[in-house]
Amino acid sequence: MSASPRGALVRRTIDLNYENKKRASALKWIVINGVVFLLFAYDLCRVCPGQTTLVHHVELALAVVALANLVQHALSALPRRRTRLALSPRQQRLLGLRDTDLDRSLEVSRVEETTAAPPTPDPWPAEALALSMCAQRRDTSPGSASPSRLSPGSPLSHSSHSPHSSHSPHSPHTPHYSPQNTHYSPKSIHYSPQSMHYSPRSPHYSPHSPHSTPSSERFPRDEFIADRRALADFLRQEEARGVAMDAAWGGAQLSASLTAPLAAPVYQLATVDTDRGTEESRGSRSPPACRRLQLDPQRLTDYDLNLRLWLHATIFERVVRELARLDSMLASAGAEARAGGVPLERLQAAAAALGPTGATCFANLLPFLEPFADQRYAVQRIRELSRGGCLSGYKWDGGSGEWEDSKPTDAELVLQLFASYLDTQLPGGGGGLGGTGGTGGAAVRRPFSIAHVTSAPQPAPRGPRALAIHRVTRRPPHYVLALGDETIEVCRGRDNLLRSLLVFVAAAARSDPPAIQRVHLGRAGLNLLWVIGR
């Protein structure tokens, strides 16, 4: 803590506040202990001699303890003797002391302070650090340049607009600069903390020197750059200043690497992006129907990832697992037929020869394999898409390396498997993968595909309860959402099918309860609400 009078006042104020709080607490305990002592003393005074019991001895002990506490708190509440300090009203206001808080150690003087200690020179004046927020640029002329922007051979000429010009009544002594005394050399600079003597030959800088450079000249105010002309002038002045300093200090090699000439930037208007882009680039844009269906456009990427995870874990992995199970049973029985290697009729006959287990396994796979004419390609591509997770090999307008136009694209394959899975889950469906319906003997019953999946040239369904994914074109595959009496265009390109499935789920989730043909979309049913973050 400082030993100055002001430091002593601050220290005394802290001690005084602590003592006032301690005294208030002591007074409270004095009252409590006094009441307790009086109660016990009154009871003990009414006891007859020779009739004391154990209770009276306990009361006597408690009375003694209460009396001791009372004396202790009374002694702590007594004021201490301290050296008297003078306190002015202004200091009292600054320290936040009221008249009731003061004690005898502080003597308040009712006369305001008229004398103050001389202010310590501030080497960094506030006016030098102030930023000018004026939108008008200051008028500058070759004769009004500040010393920090002068070249070694240019004399100083004060402008009439300078706050420290010779015409100003508050101007300090104006130094005289000449080309001879503005030559700076690293060998001629002397700096010492005691004298603050800055000597580049003849000029002297000292906080107490009358020849010190005015603050407004050493630190010019910031100028508001409002247009290209002001920016060009500022860059030109900074470039000239850098060249002058390099020449003065003889650092030509250093300046070549640190201060390169600055060129005025060329401004031009930004062009409006009118390029519609390719199918791939337009595929990732947010559809306008997201907000209508309560989908956050900022989270579409997360929803796409959730949908890919759901498709991979719920459909593709389980289908591939059933395919491997059927092939394993056929291999154990010595049959040559394999899933994807023979037509469905021959595969069904081979599975039926395995007994009820083989027939059930084939019935689980039939809704997913029946829609495809090329069984070999369909089974191979399903297995490829199941690898890696999140459908990493998905190609919306193509397929594997041997894909051709006669084979289904990945978009068609994913939609068909999605519809087939929901067919097996809805009431009256074809069964399979834990579905509710039976397998039947012939064609698979498809309640979801019939009601919610359509394709051109048939028109999109219309009506108050219409909700379907409608395929507009086959090559490249493009889908829209038929909702009520309108058709919602989601997006184009690689994300067209996935975004169409997302908005389909969001539209189905608007019902109360959220369900598709009485099958809940939450965890108790299809678990599709998790895909859209609900």
Q: What can you see in these coordinates?
A:
By secondary structure, this protein is mostly helical. It has three domains: 5-108; 148-153 and 179-265, no CATH class; 297-520, no CATH class. It has 15 helices and eight strands. The protein has helices at 5-45, 54-76, 89-95, 126-129, 215-218, 228-249, 252-258, 279-282, 300-332, 344-352, 356-369, 375-385, 410-425, 447-452, 496-508; strands spanning 85-87, 106-108, 453-455, 467-473, 478-483, 486-488, 515-516, 519-520. It has a four-stranded mixed β-sheet. A two-stranded parallel ribbon has the order 1-2. Strands 7-8 form a two-stranded antiparallel ribbon.
Q: How would you describe this structure in keywords?
A:
15 helices; 534 residues; single chain; mainly alpha; two-stranded parallel ribbon; 40% helix; 4-stranded mixed beta sheet; elongated
How are the SSEs placed, and which strands pair?
Layout (H helix, E strand, L loop, with lengths): L4 H41 L8 H23 L8 E3 L1 H7 L10 E3 L17 H4 L85 H4 L9 H22 L2 H7 L20 H4 L17 H33 L11 H9 L3 H14 L5 H11 L24 H16 L21 H6 E3 L11 E7 L4 E6 L2 E3 L7 H13 L6 E2 L2 E2 L14
Parallel strand pairs: 1-2, 3-4
Antiparallel strand pairs: 4-5, 5-6, 7-8
